[in-house]
Fold:
Amino acid sequence: MSFNSDQIIFLINPSSGNGDYLRIIKAIQQCDDAIDHFITGSKEETKTFLETIDPKYKVLVICGGDGTINSVLNYAVKSKLVFAVLPNGSGNGFARELGYRKDVAFTIDRIKKGNTHEIDVLKVNDNYCCNVAGIGFDSFIAKQFEENSKRGLLTYVVETIKGFRNYQGIDASLTINNTTEEGSYFMICFANTRQFGNNTVIAPNADPHDGLIDVVLIRKFHKALIPFIALKLLSRKGKNSKYIRYYKTDTIKVDTRYSLFHTDGEPLVKTGTILNVKISDTIQLIQTQN
Structure:
């Protein structure tokens, strides 16, 4: 399948990354001035744009980070559009995993080649997720990051260090692969791809094409062990730790009083105690490899 220039539109979040969206617009125009773009100022504007998009468009390029991609998912799973990503966020975990680059010419070239593939989409209660969701420390940090006016890797690092001092862990009951267990956890991650962002891999064997969720359970541990647990995770040797376990499943239920969770780094608050996670849909993406 091949796509013409007038069938492509870029959806640009001007607040993502360093706010250098004018550079992106200039690059689009230099590559092919027949390609359109739309600048969205809010989630509400994005929703309206998607609901009223001209049917002539066949490819939507999402310019932003994982949060911007997440804001499109509710529409994407019901759409016949093909999607691509121009990473311009703080972590860009999803884009890194799928091979997208901060290169407008590369993106347009791959779109015009027309090769596509489908990837899984998770549903966390009523919320979609394409990269990583979780409850516990990662959702705690997602909330702290949201409340910080600064963006970028350094802000994540600062909030993570502060979080180690203040976060207490969660008590939860899990039902996974027809087995139930209870315990105290540092965090529980539900991964569709391998990484949070910035090449921080949490689920080394995650595959967004396999129809399965990679669940990462990290049991609560003494704070003195933080550097050792972090090293195990970052070196992708978590399976050698008694505190870290990995599962593959197509559904998991978490019962916990802790209310804060996240999808693709976007913090959310659940009602009630239950968090149900499953593979629910697929979306069609432009392939980045020849």
Observations:
- The domain at 5-114 is CATH 3.40.50.10330 (Rossmann fold).
- The longest helix spans residues 153-166.
